[in-house]
Amino acid sequence: MSSVVARALNSSKRIKIKPIVSSNPDQAKRRVLTLYKQWFRAVPLIIRTYQLPYPVETVQAKIKENFMKNSHVRDVRAIDILIIKGEMDLQETLLNWKQDCHVRDYFEHPTKIQEPTDFLGKFLTQKH
């Protein structure tokens, strides 16, 4: 009988975590795709504004690479934080608050994605 009481107490102590913006994973996914489309639509303007010597396809590939870097994140709150950071970065880029060197740094240094080395890590990172 005491184990039933203990379980009841433990379940009542759980605190419901409030969402930041998205209330479920589907809503977070929709917001990620919206941000992705906003970045892609802004590519010609970014190239003109910062006079980048790269074609549109190269800039779009780099944007895709940066989004795929965080594709393993599944926590809705973490996704919301990444979306907010991405929106701020887009706003800073479009309003010309960044210097040319900040934008060019995206292309000078390749994005490093850590590849798992052990069996379990490789198994868990497979796309389903």
Q: What does the model show?
A:
The structure is a single chain. With 128 residues, the protein is mainly alpha-helical. 66% of the residues lie in helices and 0% in strands. The chain has helices at residues 2-13, 25-50, 56-68, 76-94, 100-108, 119-124. The protein is globular and about 55 Å long.
Order of helices and strands: HHHHHH
Average pLDDT score = 86
Quote the distance from N terminus to C terminus.
Answer: 43 Å
What fraction strand?
Answer: under 5%
Shape: globular
Number of helices: 6
Supply the helix-strand structural class: mainly alpha
Query: Residue ranges: pLDDT <50 for 5 or more in a row?
Result: none
Features:
mainly alpha; 128 residues
Summarize the structure in short.
It contains 6 helices and no strands. It has 128 residues and is an all-alpha fold.
Write the layout of secondary structure elements.
Blueprint: H1 2-13, H2 25-50, H3 56-68, H4 76-94, H5 100-108, H6 119-124
Helix pairs in contact: 2-3, 2-4
